[in-house]
Predict the structure.
Amino acid sequence: MDFRIGVIGAGAHGERYVRHGGNDVPGMAVTALCRRSETEGRVLADRYGCRYHAAPEDLIADPDVDGVVICTPPSSHFGLAAAVLKAGKPLLLEKPMTGTLSEAERLAELDAASPHSLMVAQALRWNPVITRVRELWPRLGRVHFIRLAQRLAPTTLSWQRNLAETVGGSVLLTGVHLFDLARFLSGQEVLSVDSRQWQVLNPVVEDFFLARAVLADGCQVSLEVSKYTRSRACWLEAVGQDGQIMADYLDGGIILRQGRDEEKFDVSATVPTLPNLLADWLTSIRLGTPPPVTVTDGLATLRVVEACYRSAEAGREIELGID
């Protein structure tokens, strides 16, 4: 029998979950969706042959929905996620896990008492370039420096220009990708961050930030998100004692250098990540195993977010968990 999902927040990104969940994941079906605009929501539901719910609580309570995907602005994540966990249904929650660290800590308590562990949708872990870089990582030896940069066009989403809905800017909405990748690739936790943030085009929140982080093994990490340019780029570099790697996880391509030898890997980054992400979520549900990205991972990224904001306010380096 198919595992039936409902998608709350079936907007531009949420529709991708509806499309891939209904068409590209064996054993999964989409039976319901919820979208703020009833007109657009009903059109979308008709297109994909599923039920439309005007209210999220009705979708959560729908007996034909076995699991829920939440793709709404982060300010709403805690309340919606708490409702799904209390209903005892599996939950896939878009990043960031919540809008604030305190909400993430409260959600972790609810998750511990739930029959199903929530999964955080850190989709970049399923990017083919990132997957290959992780496989190549041991060839670098001891890594002392990582650089991650994500450069995007200004947002066209109105809620990201509304402080009540977005809660934070590039640090919260995009930085979590970089913070999670640093942990995922290195296997190390972030000990401290020194961050600065600017508003270039966004009138209410930061759309440019730079940060330096130190990992538990002493590795230095450079982090950048720019959301004010007409171009796009997603770069990863890592420098180890035995080699260095450069990767483009937007368009694809990896270069590994060791001594005078150079290897190039023609890996595309344009393959959709959501089918594999959804498939792995479904596997963890059916096997009763922890999801690939746990509430612990979500908490870790929110701790870095909170430290970045404190660092920018104080104008100094902040150790995580220490005032």
